[in-house]
C-alpha cells in the first residue's frame, strides 16, 4: 500500500489537536470561567469579541511562535535552544494558574509522545534527560505545552504552517468548549463561534509564523487578571 505523506501528516495533526488527546486541556478555562461568572462574557458576541482580541493581541500568537521555535530546534537537533525557549516561556507567564496548566499539559503530551514513537531515538533520550518533568513542578520548573507541541509536530513531520494553525485551533476550540460549559450556550452556538473566527485564526497563525524574537510582545493583562482571580473563585468547574 502506498501512503500519501500529505494525508498521513493530516492524520497526525488531527490526532494531536483532538479533544480526545489525554493531556487534560478540557480541565482548564484560562480565566474564562471567571469572566462568565462575573457576567463579562454572557453572549455569543461577548465570547467572539474576547477571543478575537486574544487572537490578535493576546499571548496565543506568541505561544504559537514559541511552539514553532521548538519545532525548528528539533529539526536542527539544537537542544540548548529548546531549553532556552522553554525557560523563556515559563518566565513570561503572568499568572501561576496558566503556568501550571501549561506544565501539566506539556508533560502529559511528552509522556504520550514517548509512548507513541521510537523510544530508541537518541533525540528522545536527550530531550527526556534535559527537559523538566512532573516531579520538577514543585521546584518551579516544567515543560510547557507549546514546547511539547512543537517537539511532537516536528517529530511527526507536520509542516510549520499546519503546526501553527493546529495549535491555535486547539487553543480556541478548548476555550469555546469551556464557555459552553460555563454559560447557557448550546453546542451549536459554540460551533458558530469557531466558524466565525476562522479568518482570525488564520491571521493569528500568520502573525506567529512571521514574528521575530524581538517582536514577541502582547497585551493580555485582562486575561492574566481573570486567571489570577479564578485561582480564588469560590465555586468552579475548571482546575486552577
TrEMBL record:
Annotated GO CC locations: cytoplasm
Single GO MF annotation: nickel cation binding
The keyword Cell cycle belongs to this UniProt entry's keyword annotation: no
Flavoprotein as UniProt keyword: no
Subcellular location(s) per record: Cytoplasm
Domain of life of the organism encoding this protein: Bacteria
Coiled coil stretches, renumbered: none
Family assignment from sequence similarity: Belongs to the UreF family.
Function: Required for maturation of urease via the functional incorporation of the urease nickel metallocenter.
Complex and partners: UreD, UreF and UreG form a complex that acts as a GTP-hydrolysis-dependent molecular chaperone, activating the urease apoprotein by helping to assemble the nickel containing metallocenter of UreC. The UreE protein probably delivers the nickel.
UniProt xrefs under PANTHER family: UREASE ACCESSORY PROTEIN F
Name of this protein: Urease accessory protein UreF
Organism listed in the record: Pseudanabaena catenata USMAC16
Gene transcribed to yield this protein: ureF
Amino acid at each position: 500500500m502506498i501512503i500519501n505523506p500529505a494525508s498521513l501528516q493530516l492524520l497526525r495533526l488531527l490526532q494531536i489537536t483532538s479533544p480526545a488527546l489525554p493531556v487534560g486541556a478540557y480541565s482548564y478555562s484560562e480565566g474564562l470561567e471567571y469572566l462568565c461568572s462575573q457576567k463579562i462574557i454572557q453572549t455569543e458576541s461577548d465570547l467572539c469579541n474576547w477571543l478575537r482580541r486574544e487572537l490578535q493581541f493576546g499571548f496565543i500568537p506568541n505561544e504559537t511562535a514559541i511552539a514553532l521555535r521548538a519545532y525548528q530546534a528539533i529539526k536542527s537537533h539544537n537542544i540548548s535552544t529548546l531549553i532556552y525557549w522553554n525557560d523563556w516561556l515559563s518566565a513570561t507567564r503572568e499568572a501561576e494558574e496558566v503556568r501550571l496548566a501549561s506544565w501539566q499539559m506539556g508533560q502529559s503530551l511528552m509522556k504520550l509522545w514517548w509512548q507513541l514513537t521510537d523510544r530508541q531515538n537518541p533525540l528522545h533520550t536527550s530531550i527526556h534527560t534535559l527537559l523538566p518533568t512532573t516531579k520538577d513542578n514543585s521546584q518551579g520548573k516544567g515543560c510547557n505545552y507549546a514546547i511539547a507541541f512543537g517537539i511532537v509536530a516536528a517529530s511527526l513531520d507536520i509542516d510549520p504552517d499546519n503546526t501553527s494553525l493546529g495549535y491555535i485551533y486547539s487553543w480556541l476550540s478548548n476555550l469555546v468548549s469551556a464557555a459552553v460549559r460555563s454559560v447557557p450556550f448550546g453546542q451549536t452556538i459554540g460551533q458558530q463561534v469557531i466558524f466565525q473566527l476562522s479568518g482570525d485564526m488564520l491571521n493569528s497563525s500568520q502573525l506567529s509564523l512571521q514574528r521575530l524574537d524581538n517582536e514577541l510582545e502582547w497585551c493580555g493583562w485582562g486575561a492574566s487578571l481573570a486567571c489570577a482571580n479564578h485561582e480564588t473563585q469560590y465555586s468552579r468547574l475548571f482546575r486552577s
